[in-house]
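Tutorial, part two.
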Amino acid sequence: MPEMRFGIQFFPWHTAPETANYARRAITQFPFHRVWLADHLTYENVFVTLASLIIQTSAHVGTSVTHPFCRNPVDLASSFAALTHLAGEREVTVGIGSSAVTSDMIRKERRITMVRETVLFLRELFAGRKATLDAFPNLADFYHLDPAAQAVLHLPPSRPPQIFIAGAGPRMLSLAGELGDGLILSNFSFPAALIRQGALDEVMAPVHETLRSRDSGRPFTKVLHLHICVSRNGGHAKQFAKRIVAVALAQSNLGRDKLVQLGIPIEQATAVEDAFRQGRGADAMEPLVTDRLIEESGIIAAGTPEECISQLDELLRLAKPYCFDMVDLATPLGPSQEEAIDIICQEILPELQRRSRFYQENG
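Running the prediction step on this input gives:
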């Protein structure tokens, strides 16, 4: 039986040197398969920070996630190319989705089409080919590029980065199966409460359908992002998680009907959505999220190490039929990054590894 692979995701709340230190703290305690970093325009540049991680650690790295609306596609391609040159034999992964929590300042249209064109554009440039921009009309229009011009990387990567597509809706999931080298799913979009009700049966169908029609020799990696907030002080961890959960609920693909399916009263679901639409910050939305909501929904694993192990164990057992290849523990990690990293590496992941036979289809 192959060993379970684990990754860790950081959010750029900290400076690039601090984030690199946290990553080094993590990978010196546990052999993470990937270190991911979220692309957040109002914090430090994701590629500068990833370069810092590559230089200062032995990590394989990736974005989780970037999107088509904040970076010129040529700049995106050249940035990933530079990372691959820095990384040498280590892997660099393009994690891309149709949006991000931090991109609401940008008007976004034709999201699925923009992701499709970006993925195809990156593949052309990564392969060292010229890309005529009129073949990517939506990208050219959004970034005011000359359709008659050609884009090229003069220093393409010797080993093109893999491209994993993050999705929640059927069209993005189908796109991942069609064009991606992998798929990223999150418990923000598919919390335990919905998986218990069979939600993944429906949403994974378009992925499997498109995978059946593509080249069987192409590998495809399914990644499950599990957001966690852990501390010895379980109450502190849950309180800290509420800010993240409030924003995740407001901006996720769950929608009001699915919020109600999670057991959230319609009044509370409406209040969360309305608060976000009114531009209220996380501080104002936080009181709308209760401990019971966090515990029953499974939208984030929060609490003491023992509580988080129990919640993650349930999620991984529920996810077993879908044969995920990699499991990431994702932001916020905990109120204290140092404490959370140590707990995750020394207690949580060793215990999940010990139970891994219960999470794998051939276990």
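The chain has a mean pLDDT of 89. In part three we will examine how such features are distributed along the chain.
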